[in-house]
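Exam review. A common question shows you a sequence with its structure tokens and asks you to describe the fold in words. Practice with the pair below. Do the first one on your own.
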Amino acid sequence: MTLFTHLSPADDIRSIRRAGIRARSRDHDGRAGVFCLPVMPSYQLTHQWGRELHRRGGRRTMVAVDFRLPDDEPVLVGRYDRRHVELASAEAAVLIAGCEDARGYEVFVPRAIGAREIHRVRAINRVTGWRYMPNAHGRFPCPCCLERGEYGSAKIRRKAESRGY
């Protein structure tokens, strides 16, 4: 059994403990499921999405929901900006752990996670992770990738226009 972690708003803890993690997210093909990452020795890599989800989602407190999947269960794995490949859950964990730079990788489980599969729910550090994209420090964010009304997006668009973007 491979241990994975899903980051969720703390407001959803009661619902998750009672009914599990709902399949609310969509993959590149529109299938419903749950995004997660394998639990790795590196806290930074395991919780790398925390800062981006916190800032984009507007939630103050995020929690990590650890759950187990059978080693042979098919999942989709890849970088967030590329097509994902289907592998067994154990193979996906080995692939991510073996990457030289695993920032930006994600695992997509194309189904809901039942309450009995959940191992534990725990608090996470708010400042862990990257913002906009891995290696974005010192680079200007792409204005076309920001949603209208998102915090700070008008300022980023004005700067981009002044630079001739």
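Now try the second one, then compare your answer with the model answer below.
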Amino acid sequence: MTTQLEPRWLTAEQQRIWRAYLNGVALVNEQLDADLRPFGLDLGEYEILVHLSESPDRALRMSDLAERVRQSRSRLTHTISRMESKGLVARTACPSDRRGVIAVMTTHGYQLLVDAAPSHVASVRRVLVDPIAADDFEALGRAMEAVTRVTD
């Protein structure tokens, strides 16, 4: 028989902060998604293009890309298929491992990223950076880095 530990319930203040975090993240993501729609992109696709643009030859193994964008392989495959149909990326076989697949950013995908980036950065500033005091923004960065260290 296993003994169940009593949960460590959140205090009222912790619960308030937790809910503010959930609401804030949802609102930021919704706004960033909406602001990318005129470019025919969503936030997940934009993030994929950014990671590919920062990689040598603008290419990454699908497994590495999935890890970087924190998506399951099946979800990434679906997203890459959609992006492939838009001409933003192409998939090629990995020359060193026949089972591996590489996602490669196309010239069209790179140009779309170049076109969308100024608007996206302005959106990030408008919905997240500018409304927060500099000290609070730095604290947010430290908090998210701590979360990342615990979950990696």
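Model answer, second protein: The helical segments are 12-36, 43-53, 62-69, 73-85, 107-129, 134-151. Residues 8 and 14 are 12 Å apart (CA to CA). Full marks require stating both points clearly.
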